Amino acid sequence: MLKGKEIVLGICGGIAVYKAVELVRLLTGAGANVHVIMTRAATEFVAPLTFQTLTSNPVHSELFNLIAEREIGHISLADRADLFIIAPATANVIGKIAHGIADDMLTTTVMATRAPVLIAPAMNCNMYRNPLYQENEARLRRHGYLFADPVRGMLACGWEGEGKLQSPEIIFEEAVTALTPKDLAGEHLLVTAGPTQEEIDPVRFVSNHSSGKMGYAIARAARRRGAEVTLVSGPTCLDAPWGVETVRVASAVEMRAAVMAALPAATVVIKAAAVADYRPVVRATGKIKKNADSLVIELEKNPDILAELGGIKGERLLVGFAAETADLLENARKKLVAKNVDMMVANDVSLEGAGFHGDTNIARLLYRDGTSEELPLMTKNEMAALILDRVAELRKKAG
C-alpha cells in the first residue's frame, strides 16, 4: 500500500526523535517517498542530515527559504502528500494544530494539507493526562485526525506512565491502515489460524506443520480494510496482529468453543486453521516412559468445526481451506459441497512454494457455482489481499 506514496513526516522536539529514524527506514523500505519536516527543537536531538541521508530528500525546517525552495514549500509539500505523519508529536504542536495556529513550517503545512493526518503523541505522563491536552486531542479526533496512541512505560523524565511514543512498527501499521480503502467497513470477520495441539501426556502432543502465517495475514489485512476482526489462533510463534482481538487456544475442542463464542457477531468466517482431525482417546496424567519397544495410541475424531459452521451459518459468508497432497480439485470440491462452504481455498502443500512455514503460497479458489480461479505463486500477504477482494465481492453480491 505504500509503494510510490508521498508521505510527509513531521518531527517535533523530544527525546523520542531517535525512534523516527526507524520509522523512516520502515516507510522507505516499503517503497514510500518520505519528506521530513523538523521543528527547530527536533534538530537539537537528531541532525537533519540523518533524515536527509535516509530519505534522499532535503529536510525542511524553515518556513521561508527562498534559496532552497523554488516553490512555496509548505504548500508544495501539503499538496503532494498522500499521508501526513507527525511522530513524535509534542503537546505544544498538537495544541497549535487543534486551535488553527500555523506559525512554523510544520504547523503551516499541516494546515494546508488535505491528506489524512496521523499523529503519534509523546510527552510526560502528567502532560498527557492534562485536561487541556485531552481536550485538544479530542477536538482533533472529531475533525478526523488519526492517532497512534502512546503506550505506558518508563519516560525520559523519570516518571513511569502513559506518554511513551508508540513503537515505529505500530505507527507504520497505522500508516498502512490509513491509506487502505475501507471496503470491509461494517463487516466483522472471524478468522482461525495455526495448528491445534492434541495432548498425549504433559510433554507430548499430536499436531501438524501449520505456521499460522496465512490466517494472520488475512486478519491483519482485514483490519486494515476497515473490518472488525476476531482471530482464533492455535499455538504459533507469531505476534498478534495490531488492532485485532486475538483468542489463543491449543486443542481443537478449545478452538471450537472459541469460534462458537465469537460466531454471533461475525458476518464472515474464514477458517484458515489446520485443525487436527484426531485426538488421543486418553491423555496420560504423567509422562509416558520409554519402556516398551512399541507404543499404541488410540485416537478419536475431533469435532469438524467447518462442517458445523456450514450447517448454522445463516446469512454469513463461510470460507474454508483445504490443504491436500493429491487430487486437489476433486478433494476440495467435495469438501466445499459437503461442508456448505461459499468459497474454498485449496492448495497442494507438496508443491514448492506452497508449504506451511514459507512466506509464499499457491492456491485455487473454488466457488459454489462450480467455477474456480487459479492463483499463481505469491506472498501470503498478497494472497490474503486477493482472498479478501473476493470476500468483498461476494458480500456485495449478497446485498
TrEMBL record:
Phosphopantothenoylcysteine decarboxylase, as annotated region: 1-188
InterPro entries for this protein: CoaB-like_sf (IPR035929), CoaBC (IPR005252), DNA/pantothenate-metab_flavo_C (IPR007085), Flavin_trans-like (IPR036551), Flavoprotein (IPR003382)
Pfam family for this entry, one: Flavoprotein
Domain Flavoprotein: start-end pairs: 5-169
Flavoprotein recorded as keyword: yes
CC cofactor note: Binds 1 FMN per subunit.
Annotated keywords: Decarboxylase, Flavoprotein, FMN, Ligase, Lyase, Magnesium, Metal-binding, Multifunctional enzyme
Record protein name field: Coenzyme A biosynthesis bifunctional protein CoaBC
Native source species: Geobacter sulfurreducens (strain ATCC 51573 / DSM 12127 / PCA)
